[in-house]
Amino acid sequence: MCSTLLTRAGYRVELCGSAHEALVLLDRLFRQGEEVALLVTDFNMPDGDGLSLVRAVRRQHPALPVLISSGYVSEALAQQAAALGVSSVLHKERMLEDLTSRVREALREG
């Protein structure tokens, strides 16, 4: 649903099913000279969590804007995400309402 929303808003979206898959895709896209403007990730993934993914991405692409979504956004998650430079942590229950505006904000800031 989120990918459809972003596609309709004019963004090109690539989907991944795991953190590993996302890292492989990002590596390939950057090696091919593709522009990657933003990473949107879930906090809970089959092979890790969104913060671990952000740490791995930051090693190679420190300036890439990132949004994380989670069903439960604790103060600890928000603080850890902020420390990693995550643009925004989205509550899943408000994801559809907030996603497009948060993407725009992250791209402006990035």
Describe this structure in words.
The protein is an alpha/beta fold and 110 residues long. The protein has one domain (2-109): 3-Layer(aba) Sandwich (Rossmann fold). The chain has helices spanning 2-8, 19-31, 50-60, 75-83, 95-109; strands spanning 39-42, 44-45, 48-49, 66-70, 88-91. The strands form 2 sheets. It has a 3-stranded parallel β-sheet with strand order 1-4-5, with helices on both faces. A two-stranded antiparallel sheet has the order 2-3. Helix 2 runs parallel beside helix 3. The chain is globular and about 35 Å long. The chain starts with a helix and ends with a helix. The relative contact order is 0.17.
Strand content: 15-25%
Shape call: globular
Number of strands: 5
Main sheet characteristics: 3 strands, parallel
The H/E string reads HHEEEHEHEH
Report the CATH C-level class: Alpha Beta
The unreliable regions are none
CATH architecture descriptor name: 3-Layer(aba) Sandwich
Q: For the record, what is the CATH homologous superfamily label?
A: Response regulator
> What's the domain count?
1
Helix content: 40-55%
Gyration radius over CA: 13 Å
- Global mean pLDDT: 93
CATH topology: Rossmann fold
Between the first and last Cα atoms, what is the distance in angstroms? 24 Å
How many separate helices?
5
